[in-house]
Amino acid sequence: MELTFRWYGKSDPIPLEYIKQIPRISGIVSALYDVKIGEIWPQEQIKSLKRMIEAVGLRLSVIESIPVHEDIKLGRRSRDKYIENYCQNIKNMGFLGINVLCYNFMPVFDWTRSNLSKKNPDGSTSLAYDQDEINKINISEESIELPGWATNYGKAELEDLLKAYSKVDEETLWSNLEYFLKRVIPVAEKAGVRLSIHPDDPPWPIFNLPRIITNEAALDRLIDIIDSPSNGITFCTGSFGPNLKMDLIKSIYKFGSLDRIPFVHIRNIKRINGQSFIEVAHPTEFGDIDMFKVIKALVDIDFKGMIRPDHGRMIWGERGKPGYGLYDRALGIMYLSGLWEGIKKIRNSK
Ligand SMILES: [Mn+2]
């Protein structure tokens, strides 16, 4: 098991040196953020990112993520060119010894929240998702701040995409994912890279766009597309958490034992009636996810992959990228690694 921390490159307000000071963190999860989606990442830029990280005594363990071009998700004819570029990126990262690639297959929008700084009673702020708020948003008219939106697509382009997706149902999206995986996984195997799909967040369709990586049955279906350790899952407790029908612990045992989980994101969420939730501090008692059981499952399967604390709250007056402050994520990973040490030592002493 390796403990890692997400870092957004030079523009991240958190210096790498600070991350290095968090006990037990040895890996960095990062990406290139200025390459156009679908293009080949310049090898020199990846090398320089890697060098920067290694200069402080950490290593670049995971690429999160190389975005999948919408043409691939839509199954447009131009997808082959983008898939070819994707394969080249996989070969390049493998060549540099970076072995885990987190990606997602969510149409248009990445993880989505209705509020990026919901105030908690203790003065901290959290990312929150309120289904009623989301239902009120007319995405073709308003310009509200949603992660993944407006930053990636202009208004006309967005309209175009939404129109194209109106003809894509869940089955079509599955078949487009299958087409993609059948081409990239063999390349990843050869390159020594493990792809790890991130679940859809939240795990249900939003804005009438299909979402498919939402539950255990979806993960069964995914790993059946190609039986390979390179066809893996980023097991994100916070993304699956809002799905009441998902038994997270059972899924960790199941897919972990099959060696299909190269990467784990851990955070806690508190469900608020129906399809709404707020992100809370990592410890079990603040949310609906039993962190002791999560870590115990990972210890029990002898998990050898990467773990990172997922989003944290903003605490101690910190300002920065919502969900990605230093302090709460550092507290979170200390708590999680403490659980790991305790569970492991008790198990070994028996
Ligand atoms: Mn996640």
Calculate the mean pLDDT score and round it: 93
Structural class: alpha/beta
The largest sheet is: 8 strands, parallel, barrel
Order of helices and strands: EHEHEHHEEEHHHEHEHHEEEHEH
Query: How many individual helices?
Result: 12
Estimate percent helicity: 25-40%
User: How far apart are the termini?
Assistant: 21 Å
Number of strand elements: 12
Keywords:
350 residues; alpha/beta; TIM Barrel; 8-stranded parallel beta barrel; 4-stranded antiparallel β-sheet; 12 helices; 12 strands; 39% helix; 17% strand; globular; binds manganese (II) ion
Which secondary structure elements does this structure contain, and how are they paired or packed?
Elements: E1 2-6, H1 16-20, E2 25-30, H2 43-55, E3 59-64, H3 70-74, H4 79-95, E4 100-104, E5 115-119, E6 125-129, H5 131-136, H6 155-165, H7 170-191, E7 194-198, H8 216-225, E8 231-236, H9 237-240, H10 248-257, E9 263-266, E10 268-272, E11 276-280, H11 291-300, E12 306-309, H12 327-349
Parallel strand pairs: 1-2, 1-12, 2-3, 3-4, 4-7, 7-8, 8-9, 9-12
Antiparallel strand pairs: 5-6, 6-11, 10-11
Helix pairs in contact: 4-7, 10-11, 11-12
Give your account of this protein's structure.
There is one protein chain. The chain is α/β, with parallel strands linked by helices and 350 residues long. It has a single domain (2-349), classed as TIM Barrel. It is built from twelve helices and twelve strands. The protein has helices at 16-20, 43-55, 70-74, 79-95, 131-136, 155-165, 170-191, 216-225, 237-240, 248-257, 291-300, 327-349, and strands spanning 2-6, 25-30, 59-64, 100-104, 115-119, 125-129, 194-198, 231-236, 263-266, 268-272, 276-280, 306-309. The protein has an eight-stranded parallel beta barrel, surrounded by four helices. Helix 8 links the parallel strand 7 and strand 8 (231-236). The longest helix is centred in the last third of the chain and has 23 residues, at 327-349. The chain starts with a strand and ends with a helix. The mean pLDDT is 93. The protein binds manganese (II) ion. The site of manganese (II) ion has 6 residues, from helix 9. Manganese (II) ion (MN) binds next to helix 9.
